[in-house]
Amino acid sequence: MHPLLSIQNLSIDFITENQTTNAVKNISFDVNRGEILGIVGESGSGKSVTSLSILQLLPQPPAKFQNGKIIFHDEDAEPIDLIRANSRKIRKIRGSKIAMIFQEPMTSLNPVMSCGKQVMEALLVHKNIAAPEARKQTIEWFEKVKLPLPDKIFNRYPHELSGGQKQRVMIAMAMCCHPSLLICDEPTTALDVTVQKTILQLIKELQQQENMGVIFITHDLGVVAEIANRVAIMYRGAIVEENTAVNIFNYPQNSYTKALIACRPALHPKNESLPTVSDFMESEVRIEKTENEDSRPESRSKSLEEKKDHPRHAPLSIVRVENLVARFAGKLNLLGRPKTYFTAVDDVSFEIFKGETLGLVGESGCGKTTLGRSLLRLIDPSSGKIIYNNSNITDLSKSQLTDLRKDVQLIFQDPYSSLNPRLTIGDAIAEPMKVTGIENNVRERKKRVSELLERVSLSPTMMNRYPHEFSGGQRQRIVIARALSMNPGFIVCDESVSALDVSVQAQVLNLLNELKRELGLTMLFISHDLSVVRYMCDRIMVMRKGKIIETGAAEDVYYRPQSSYTKELIEAVPKIPGT
To answer: Within a domain: residue 36?
Structure first.
């Protein structure tokens, strides 16, 4: 029996005037009907390029297929080489026989078309049915993907849905024509753990019902362990290891595979530097998890318990929040006045001690980003107090806020969108200093930029490059350097490592820990990844529907949660064998 899809000796180059990049190097693998193949690798490993090539979605030029075949066997039809299929044939296959779910549903969905009409469009293009039947089938698919109130969501636009709901719409669109092969390109990367779990369950459930073949691309090893039957590991355009999921995680053979598994925060106690892929590849020594008494969760928690009873910085509270409320206007009346309000932060009180990292976790929409931005006065709270360094910053004037900005900074989730694409990174880092007058002249600012770039392990010679010339991990370092340019005492990290590969994430987390130790930084670390929060933070706050429902030492909250909601969050974290 033929495999559903067979990629044979595929090589893809990207050719520009200045250089040729070998993006995919002579790879081969099969996908069978009824199985899920996980493809894992860092950014730039070639995994997305491979998936896009299956449906001829790579622009040619600059992409060039140097050699290879992509053979698709669909039921009793003649096998077809998708690389050489003409445009008419590939249009018939796209969405009908082979469908794709992309990483970011907001950029994949049409913002000016209702969600229902977008799914209807796919049905009308590929199936010989009338509009009323297409509408009926669309609502049925919305029910299958477990969207609430399917008939109402049919008429809603993408911006009116949550991230998880938009991803379900994308799944309905991909599945509605009953494809034989489904390609999932990082479909859960930006989702919190509970939504991610339901999306993974949904994909697996539909895959089994339809007996589809699935290619699931991700950089999250926990996710691939949860969903895949087989796993292929990609590194610099080549497949370096392929095996069953069980064997990949229990008996990895390649040094790169071992490195990916070893550098996850879940395996390491606090204050232990995370191994990086480059370190691991150079040494080619397996990093074994320490089994001594001090590394076990119970004893680590005990030492933290002692620290919690006698906190070194407890008397020095740098941030104190009292009964904070943040509301947003809902529906407006005919006069443009709010008829309803949505409470994002609901009567929240807590302290952050000088030199500590406080973790804030919760599902999307729980209010954690609103809370973090309220602390920096990027959002004006409706009521309550924010005390920073013994001063109430809740009612500061515009000029007073400018002074505050020198001491409090924000590191965003997406460094690319937070950097001006028209500014060199040197100018981007120098801009806050120029606005606030921290350095006196261009020469002093340039010197300070050089020092900051070196501090985040980037070369000062890079300061004249633009954001698009850097990788995701390098851009995150640039954003960190820009935040440090103000010599802040308090930093809010808002999902600042959630979209990074596990190896790049390890580098950025190591950097943040080094800066915390050397500069005495105080941080609020917002994330939906509880294993990262456990590794990075001294204490954890759990937020739900605008309220703080649990607070405690990081090890206590992670290993012995008290509230049922916290237990659900932790149980939803994908686990891999042996952890």
So the answer is: no
Strand partners, 268: none
* Contact (Cβ atoms closer than 8 angstroms) between residue 193 and residue 569: yes
Would 438 be classed as within a structural domain? yes
Contact 25, 237 (CB under 8 A): yes
What is the side-by-side order of every strand in the sheet holding 357-361?
Answer: 408-411, 490-494, 522-526, 357-361, 539-544, 547-553
Overall number of domains in the chain: 1
pTM for this one?
0.77
**pLDDT per residue of the chain (579 residues) written in tens, 0 to 9:** 788 999 999 999 888 777 888 889 999 999 998 899 999 887 778 888 888 899 888 888 888 888 999 999 877 678 889 988 888 888 888 888 898 888 766 667 888 899 999 999 989 988 888 999 999 999 998 888 878 888 888 998 888 777 677 878 888 888 888 888 999 988 777 677 777 888 888 888 888 888 889 999 987 788 888 889 999 999 889 999 999 988 998 898 888 888 888 888 877 887 788 877 776 666 554 434 444 334 333 433 333 333 334 444 445 889 999 999 998 877 777 777 777 778 888 999 999 999 899 999 988 778 888 899 899 888 888 899 999 988 898 888 877 887 888 889 888 777 777 888 899 999 999 988 888 777 778 888 899 899 889 888 788 888 888 888 776 667 888 888 888 888 888 999 988 887 677 777 888 888 888 888 888 889 999 988 888 899 999 999 999 989 999 999 999 999 999 999 999 888 888 777 655
Domain with 420 in it: 408-486
Decide if 4 contacts 75 (C-beta within 8 A): no
Residue 268 contacts residue 253 (beta carbons within 8 Å): no
In a domain, 425, yes or no: yes
CB 385 within 8 A of CB 392: yes
- Distance from C-alpha of 332 to C-alpha of 311, rounded to nearest angstrom: 48
Q: Are strands 357-361 and 383-388 parallel, antiparallel or unpaired?
A: unpaired
- Checking DSSP bridges between strand 20-31 and strand 357-361, what pairing results, if any? unpaired
497 contacts 359 by C-beta, under 8 angstroms: no
Q: Does a structural domain hold residue 63? A: no
